[in-house]
What we know:
Order of helices and strands: EHEHEEHHHH
Strand order of the largest sheet: 2-1-3-4
Largest sheet: 4 strands, mixed
Structural class: alpha+beta
Shape: elongated
Radius of gyration: 28 Å
Strand content: 5-15%
Amino acid sequence: MVIKVFLASSSGSTAIKKKQQDVLGFLEALKVDYAQLDIACNEDNRMWMRENVPVEKKPTNGIPLPPQIFNEESYCGDYETFFDAKEDNAVYAFLGLPPPPGSKKAPVKEEEAQEEVEDEEAKEEEELRQLEEEEEAPEVTEQEEEDE
């Protein structure tokens, strides 16, 4: 699977250039295979990108701006969704890729799930213990309460 990053090599916008550099730099750092597809020099790339960005993800003017990220034919997202995934340490899930072997993200999830199960079991045990103590406690009658 190859990640496709649609970008504009001759964009006049410094914001778009920075976003493109951020995406490409991060993919490089993760050693993710990707292909840069220029929409400024190649009309086919531009048309394919525009046609394949889901309608609900297109801006109000209907023309999505680069960078746009795909996993083969599957749309992953734009820079904002990429940035959110990066902040959440969920870039592999965002890209539709399995985490690399030895990555810390998967074990952390398993550990968190195990901790949740253990916490839930501890709560249940505590509730049972309290119920048992209540059952074993001698009942105090109303008369005894009045006498006290």
